Amino acid sequence: MKRLILNLAILLIVLTLTSSSIAVLPVTSQDKGKIIPKLEELRGMVEGEHPSLANKVNAVIHQIEAGAFNGALNKLVNDVNKTITAWVENPAELYKKLNEIVDLIKGITPPPTPEVHDIAVTEVTAEPLEVQVGQSVFIDVEVENQGDSTETFDVTVYFGLTIIKAKTDVSLDEKEKVMLSFEWVTRDVDVGTAKISAAASTVPSETDISDNTLEDGSVTVQPSTEKDVIFETVRINSPTPGSYLRGVVEIKVFTQDKNFEQANLTINDQLRDSWSSAGEHTYTWTTTYDTDGVYTIKLKAVDTFNNTGERTVSVTVDNTTPEASIDAPPEGRFLRLWVLIKVRGNDANFERMGVRIDGESVKNWTAGGSEILEWDTQNYDDSVHRITLTVTDKARNSREVLRTVTVDNTPPNIGTPTWSPKEPTANEEITINVTVTEPSYGSGVKNVTLWYWNTTMDEGIAVPMTFKNGNWTATITNQSGTDVTFLIEAFDNAGNRAETEELELTVAGPAGVPLAWILAAIAAIGAGTGGGIYYWRRRRKKSGGKLASSTPT
Question: Which domains does the chain have, with CATH numbers?
Answer without folding.
Answer: 2-106 (no CATH), 119-222 (2.60.40.10), 233-317 (2.60.40.10), 323-407 (2.60.40.10), 413-542 (2.60.40.1930)
